[in-house]
UniProtKB/TrEMBL annotation:
SUPFAM superfamilies: GST C-terminal domain-like, Thioredoxin-like. It comes from Paracoccus laeviglucosivorans. Residues 1-82 form the GST N-terminal domain. Signal peptide: none annotated. The keyword Transferase applies. This is Glutathione S-transferase. InterPro entries: Glutathione-S-Trfase_C-like, Glutathione-S-Trfase_C_sf, Glutathione_S-Trfase, Glutathione_S-Trfase_N, GST_C, Thioredoxin-like_sf. The keyword Protein biosynthesis does not apply. Transmembrane segments: none annotated.
Amino acid sequence: MEPILIYGYPSGSSMALVAALEWLGQPYRLCRVDMLGEMRDPAYRRLNPRVETPVLITDDGRVVTETMAIALWLEARDDARRISFAPRSAQTDRMHQLMGFVNTGFTGAFTSLWAALEMQTPDPARQALLRDIGKDQVTERHDRLEEMIGPGPYLVGDRPSLADALLIGVARWAAYHQITEASGWPRLTALRKRLEDDPAVQYATALETGEPATGNGACRGHVALQDLITRFGAQLETA
Ligand SMILES: N[C@@H](CCC(=O)N[C@@H](CS)C(=O)NCC(=O)O)C(=O)O
């Protein structure tokens, strides 16, 4: 069977992996999950006990969670080197460095902002504090990323790779939280624009927002979440 990626909306970082699957060009399927709704159902814990997207069902029916693990699963199958580079090359080391940075500090910098936005019982004083902390952290990580981006068209080499995919999945969050900076992070802004114009990213974004979209043909369709839970979910331990 084809591997199946479970991606979340709204504004999930998992959009990154939909774009990466398009660039990879091998047959795959998708499952679209409402992170504010059906992902909260206890049954989802059978796929990911941490109640997060993304989740990958591999071609031999195993459940793989965590963005980095899924990205490395794709990299290991990218024989044509469409989204990655030769093993043991300097480009691979650089791609892994950037993927690690984006998936840890860069993504984590938004934690306070999400906490302020999603607070169950709104508390204006705590929300204002969380927003202040979040703004500083996001700005600092954007400054560091700006320094890491080279003069080339993409993060590594002259075509998009897994590093660019992971970046575009979260780089849009700054605008979502209305974080801007006087310098405008010119290299990051140019890279984001290039990626947002990419057909694979446009396809992934349209799917996420529920608009009709046509990809490059590698996607063989969507699968219902309930089917995946029934077929591949673990049995939950009962107390
Ligand atoms: N460490 C995980 C984090 C994944 C993650 O934080 N996913 C978010 C969406 S971007 C999520 O599912 N959050 C749960 C929620 O919104 O309640 C990974 O890298 O895959």
